[in-house]
Amino acid sequence: MSTKLFTFKGGVHPPQNKTFTQNVPIEDAVDPKIVVIPLSQHIGAPCDPLVAVGDTVKVGQKIGESKAFVSVPVHSSVSGTVKKIEQHQVPGGSKVNCIIIESDGKFEVHESVQPKGSLESLSKDEILSIIKEAGMAGMGGAAFPTHVKLAPPKDKVIDVLLVNGAECEPYLTADHRIMLEKPELVMLGIKAIKKALSVEKCYIAIEKNKPDAIETLQKLAQGEDGIEVCPMEVKYPQGDEKRIINAITGRIVPSGGLPMEVGCVVENVGTVATIGNVFLTGMPAVQRVVTVSGSAVKNPKNIYVRIGTLFKDVIEQCGGYSEEPGKILNGGPMMGIAQFTDEVPVVKGTSGILVFNKKDAQIPEPSNCILCGRCVEACPVYLQPYKISRFSMLKKFDEADELHGADCIECGGCSYVCPAKRPLKETISIAKKEILTRRKKAK
Q1: Same domain, yes or no, for 270 and 382?
Q2: In which residues is [4Fe-4S] cluster 2 bound (predicted)?
Q3: DSSP state of 169
């Protein structure tokens, strides 16, 4: 194991607030009576339903699929009856087509769910096909189809796999618990991905505030060729894939480019462990670990939840609300998305459900920019947030584009350090969307 602590330029140090759940073992969720399974839980084309109202389904059965390359199928997380196929609110903020299933409480597993055999007996193409058919999309939050990442164009030579176990977002500890409690699945997933990519070198990036996870994976990695655990400094947004690439390999992903441009693929550790489970048991992505925490949750926990379970049901398993909630987030406090209802389903990218009381949810009143430059120092992408934000507010999006506004990773570090409490992240996000929309139209 390397003794060097890897890190990157910029970043911020918000309070970690991980003590609520970091020592709480993963608990199986109470079986839901109803699941709402979105046909779009991933970047790319939404799925078309493969079932109709009134159909009986089983656990692991494919219920939605798209013929597009950038897409992944969805599967039922319960056995029961399809009650509705309709538009429903999802954590991303929009309404999408969802399959609503009433559980019969039996949780009968579909006949297609079978162990996939040894990795040695499978070809690269077979591994990719299994990963795609399992509905694998990034579980760190981005939900990018995994098989697409693992099938780069022939002119992009990949030589490094990076497993992202940084989990730099405050409060979230789901990945930490996965590394502690399911390390064998992490290792099996790594081996499958290494074979699919034909790479020899894998780095597991873990922030140093998880010494038990570092030790656990280091012990397993000792007998494996080409797998190294890399402890990292505790700093946000250490878990951003381009920051990890730069910190560990020294490579710089070009503006607008993808990790494949510098020979790297980055996968979240939760994604990797789920892939390991796919090969071990044959069960597709129908469950995930979710951290439930925050000042308005009675008993914060890490829970193994069936996809499609409503937030309110998950929160109820944690004792419900300790007081009236002021804000509910899908994800962490820095990059998470606020919800206006707790009747949204857990999806593949739901790493956390955070509930804050009204005091903690208060938004400070902004004042005028004092040109202190703290946002510039904090920005891990070397941007000038205060300038891009100003152009966005003036609707001068061409000027925002000239300052590389589209390169913003929306980490929120600039807003966090701003003494004037300016809405930097929010306004830059508006500019970024406008810039990317204009570029798309121009093509």
Answers
A1: no
A2: 379, 408, 411, 414
A3: S
Contacts of 303 (CB under 8 A, 6+ apart): 26, 27, 28, 29, 289, 290, 292, 314, 317, 318
Per the CB < 8 A criterion, the answer to whether 271 and 136 are in contact is yes
- 352 within a domain of the structure (yes/no): no
Residue 436 lies in domain? 374-442
Tens of each residue's pLDDT in the chain, 443 residues: 445 788 888 999 999 999 999 999 999 999 999 999 999 999 889 999 999 999 999 999 999 999 999 999 999 999 999 999 999 999 988 999 999 999 999 999 999 999 998 999 999 999 999 999 999 999 987 789 999 999 999 999 999 999 999 999 999 999 999 999 999 999 999 999 999 999 999 999 999 999 999 999 999 999 899 999 999 999 999 999 999 999 999 999 998 899 999 999 999 999 999 999 999 999 999 999 999 999 999 999 999 999 999 999 999 999 999 999 999 999 999 999 999 999 999 999 999 999 999 999 998 999 999 999 999 999 999 999 999 999 999 999 999 999 999 999 999 999 999 999 999 999 999 999 999 999 989 87
Beta carbons within 8 Å of 311's beta carbon, 6+ residues apart = 328, 330, 339, 342, 343, 344, 345, 346, 353
- DSSP helix/strand/coil, 390: helix
Q: Is residue 337 part of a domain?
A: no
Q: Determine, yes or no, domain membership for 406.
A: yes
pTM above 0.85, yes or no: yes
Residues 45, 71: contact at Cβ < 8 Å?
A: yes
Q: Which two tokens stand for residue 206?
A: 């873990």
254 assigned to some structural domain: yes
Q: How many domains does the chain have?
A: 2
Which of these, 399, 386, 402, 397, lies nearest to 432 by C-alpha position? 397
Residue 82: helix, strand or coil by DSSP? Answer: strand
The pair of three-digit structure tokens given for residue 208, joined into one six-digit string: 């140093």
Closest among 18, 261, 6 to 152, alpha carbons compared: 261
Cβ contacts of 190 within 8 Å, gap of 6 or more: 161, 163, 202, 204, 227, 272, 276
Q: Domain check: are 400 and 272 in the same one?
A: no
Annotated binding site: 369, 372, 375, 379, 408, 411, 414, 418
| Domain closes at, from 238, 256, 281 | 281
Which neighbouring-strand residues pair with 205? 164, 230
Instruction: Tell me the binding residues for [4Fe-4S] cluster.
Output: 369, 372, 375, 379, 408, 411, 414, 418
Same domain, 147 and 258: yes
Among the candidates 281, 315, 342, a domain finishes at 281
Assess whether 136 and 268 both reside in one domain.
Answer: yes
Rg (CA), the chain: 21
